[in-house]
TrEMBL record:
This is NAD(P)-binding protein. Residues 10-142 form the NAD-dependent epimerase/dehydratase domain. Keywords: Oxidoreductase. The keyword Chaperone does not apply. InterPro entries: Epimerase_deHydtase, NAD(P)-bd_dom_sf, NAD(P)_dehydrat-like. One of its GO terms (molecular function) is oxidoreductase activity, acting on the CH-OH group of donors, NAD or NADP as acceptor. It comes from the Eukaryota. Belongs to the NAD(P)-dependent epimerase/dehydratase family. Dihydroflavonol-4-reductase subfamily.
Length: 159
């Protein structure tokens, strides 16, 4: 028996991101209803167009700032599971904290909202960001599940 069976509603945060959009697509193809969070209404409408063949099985909620207390309160209502994929991506920053602080705060925010929503949420899946794998390396290459960003790990240890 599946804890969260097809037909259940799954919240996917950051639904317009690369990884999250694939999560949305896979869930829809497997028969789940999906509610995605996006930062703007335009991004939500764009996703509705992409997933229009799934008709009413995809909806979106605008969450302009994932770091705010209560940011996900509306989005978590009546969902059975959450796939948290929203995370800041900023390739121009030189300060790792510009990525780490909002990523941690966004994760705290979704967990607080889920906790306050009651017991309907049966599972929460956290996905990392592309920053976990990318290294500052000018050589083009293909990354696989065997790769890891050792540069970031070393940098974090010095902080």
């Amino acid at each position: 028996m599946t804890i969260v069976p097809p037909g259940s509603t799954v919240l996917v945060t950051g639904a317009n991101g690369y990884i999250a959009a694939w999560i949305v697509r896979t869930l829809l193809e497997e028969g789940y209803r999906v509610r995605g969070t996006v930062r703007t209404r335009d991004k939500g409408r764009a996703l509705q167009k992409i997933f229009e063949k799934f008709e009413t099985k995809f909806e979106f909620v605008v969450v302009p700032d994932i770091t705010k207390d209560g940011a996900f309160d509306e989005a978590v209502q009546d969902v059975d599971a959450i796939a948290h994929a929203a995370s800041p991506v900023n390739f121009s920053t030189e300060d790792p904290q510009d990525l780490i602080r909002p990523a941690v705060r966004g994760t705290e925010s979704i967990l607080q909202s889920a906790s306050q929503a009651g017991s309907k949420v049966r599972r929460i899946v956290y996905t990392s960001s592309v920053a976990a794998i990318l290294e500052v390396d000018p050589k083009p290459r293909t990354f696989t599940e065997e790769n890891w960003n050792n540069q970031s790990v070393a940098l974090i240890r010095t902080l």
